[in-house]
Amino acid sequence: MKRLEELPEHATPSRDCPKCKGHGLLTQTLGFHAGVTLCDCIHPSPCPRCGGSGHILALMEGVERVGRCKCQILPDRARLFNFAKLPARYAEATLESYEARDEATRAAKEAAEQWVHDYAAGNTKRGLLLHGEVGRGKTHLLVGVARRLTLEHNKRVRFVEFTLLLSELMEGFERGDGRKTVLAPLRDVEILAIDEIGKGRCTEFELAVLDELITQRYNTAKVILATSNYAPGNATGEKTPNLALHGRTYAPSAAAAAKNADPGFYDRGLRVPTLVDRVGDRVYSRLLEMVGLVAVEGGDRRQILHQQQNQQSQPQSPTPAAPHEPPPTPAYAAQARSVEPRRGEARLTALRVTLANQMTPTILSSRDPKIVVQLERLLGELQDVEEGIRPERPVEELVRDVLHVAGRLNLPAANQKW
Ligand SMILES: [Zn+2]
Ligand SMILES: [Zn+2]
Predict the structure, then answer these.
(1) Does residue 169 sit in the same domain as residue 142?
(2) What is the distance between the alpha carbons of residues 149 and 286, in angstroms, rounded to a whole number?
């Protein structure tokens, strides 16, 4: 039997591979999820060190030992990454590719990077809650954190979108095996990353199941990472966002409101629900014990993108409309776009805002929640297209799906031409 140091080198990716840049892993999408596969530049094959078995048998200090071959590091990472089920539309999102455009978003990015570092080093067991208005790239940051944890630190992460989490839990409970098939894996995974916590309808029953999940994780000291469009802070008593789903849901700090050129926000007497209004006292107070808070404030990335596009395409165009115009009814409609959308996408914004306006809490409460969740996801996709995020499929197909699902909910916008 050979000594460990006499074994041949393990198979490795080619350093100058144009496809994987020497990392050995290629990003792809697996249905709704992001995935990675091994690059075919990994050579020689089979691995000369283990003969392809993944295990080595060698003498270490005179004793026979079995070990795992180093060639298994990449497949192990790929398995962890694919287990995380990151959303396909963020397949390429990394912490490196998160573009911090101002001081506030730079601070948020640094906090996320620092957290990964601290957690990997065993210095913290407390998770993170990234909170801020829609369009700040919170999901990108969360995905970037999950990506780094799986690919660089061998951590087991599971990513879930909040409304989908609730609908999965509900389906499981309706079938009668929810605790075993749905709740247990979410309870046991080392790190649970919940995107957009507080979003959606949040019925009493859903919140009770959420409470069970969070409490069990709390009791076993498991880590939660989350994003929310709702601000932490005191309850306002307002349960539902004024503009049903994709309108403004977040009460920014006074400083952020001023920076975002919306000083009239408070003057209009709008009461915006906070996270505690949405998820209830019990879940909220547990969460606060389990996570550190990171505000993702700063300019709206969507608006910044539009501004840049406008500057590039129409250098003489006047600066965006002043945000001080008196609010029409409903008040949120004016805020939906204070900046001219990119050419060809005004239509998408109009469709999304119209639908969001039609999805009032009264209407939603009388509709099938599964279809509501479906539409909500589609509107999220639309918003991504507006933000300049590469769509998963042709925009026309997306619009067709949106109108189809809106029709199933009997929303008037489904019968209009878009
Ligand atoms: Zn390669
Ligand atoms: Zn090997």
Answers:
(1) yes
(2) 24
